[in-house]
Amino acid sequence: MVVKTAKSATFSTNIGEKRYPNQIYVSSEPKPKMLASLAPFGPGASITENKMKLKFKDQYGEDFDKDYSGYEVELSLQKTGGDSSVTGNVYFSKGSFTGTPTWALNADPNSGKPNTLTFVGDDTRADGYSASSKSIKSIRDTDLTFTPVQGDNYEGSYQITAKLFKTGTSRDQVSSATRTVDVIKASKAASLTYSLTAIANGLYATNELDGVTALADNPADALPNPNIQGISTPSSDVDYMKNWLAAKVEVTAKDGADNVAMPNNLIRGISVSNPRVAKAVAKPKSDGIGYDVPALRGLEAGTTSMVVSFYPSNYTGTKTVTLDNIQVKKDAAVTASLTAGENGKGKTVWLSVLNGLSISGGDSVVDGHTQKKKTFGDIKLKDAYGYTEYKNYGVFRTAELYGTQFYVSNLKWSDPANPGVLRIDVDKVKGTATYFYQPGAGGSRIISFQASVTSGGKTQTVDVFVDANH
Description:
This protein is mainly beta. The protein has helices at 237-242, 393-397, 399-402, and strands at residues 21-28, 33-35, 50-58, 71-81, 90-94, 103-106, 116-120, 144-148, 156-166, 172-184, 193-196, 203-204, 247-248, 251-255, 258-261, 267-272, 278-284, 291-298, 302-313, 317-329, 335-340, 346-350, 364-366, 369-371, 379-383, 389-391, 405-413, 421-427, 432-438, 446-455, 458-467. The strands form eight sheets. Strands 7-4-9-10-2-15-14-11 form an eight-stranded mixed sheet, with no helix packed on it. It has a five-stranded antiparallel sheet with strand order 1-3-8-5-6, with no helix packed on it. Strands 12-20-19-16 form a four-stranded mixed sheet, with no helix packed on it. Strand 25 and strand 26 form a beta hairpin. It is flat, with a radius of gyration of 26 Å. The two termini are 40 Å apart.
């Protein structure tokens, strides 16, 4: 019953303008200078890769990644310095020339590559959406790379320009971003200032670790030898996992105040002054099986120094650089940060795929429709030493080390009197985490639940709604 009174109430709200891309910007900067590659392009080659990233902002200045319909991005590469013989000496690409790039630009019209490419906008939220290689979505927040060809005696300046256009009855430029990088002569490598990236937080004494759930087999047995003098390969899966706690060994170069990109695979050897305290290792990838970078791992508490030999150019040959007073500590490796890509969001998943679904997986396109499978998205963890960002596989494998737990709560069933079973199963050996789902008696199905991951007092949570029609 509604009782009539003389009183009234007013409610008002603001409906904002639809968001649209209004600015393209460089979110991760390339190094302003780079040395030429040391070898022809190909697998495992010592080539220079100078990376940058692009992102977009909307009309409110917020990061944007939604509906790009009605917009285009034009990328163009040109030589702005150096003689005509070096016009084609630098490529700009998505993907590495150690393999086959998705696409590549070159300023030389005779190179066989275009100097300009156009990327078309579409609605990333559309059912069945999958980003094509020529979509705006495909170039957002991904590595875009300047790669100079092999050579000992050339120099030049190369400029990439990214322009954002609004299309329709006319094509109007909305925004642009430009970066210029210089290739410096290989002979100048002799006068650069080299250093090793500081191991500022010290290293964890990994001999303190025990009781870690590990594989019976050693994953390193199936991996190629790093072929760097002084690096030891893992003797077991436990040894392999301990290498995650190692700090990357990275040689940096400067020309005055400018950072200089150098060829990859340039480290030739690592020597440790106190091998009881630390050793050089091949650091594993954080999200799967395989080696990532050379690194230094702490063994016992103490102090050591490290000498690294490296080969920046044919003019310099092998050079060395030293890092002193590296501290190895017994302070436990505790969780410092924990993130999930979809934290705090409401997610919808299909009931038909829930059992056995990876908690870190994403949606997929099946028969032209988006199969809803994403809950947490990518899960990432860093410890207090800060040298590794574990991702998905690495988070699950190190769950015991960091005390990471995964659980569901607030389960709602279609028949509350007959609940079924829903939980998260983590295989710390295989590095997987999946939902186990079993309906209740009489077909009682899950309607919604909350999924959480917690580590070191930090928690990430998603609210999950289950679509019973799929």
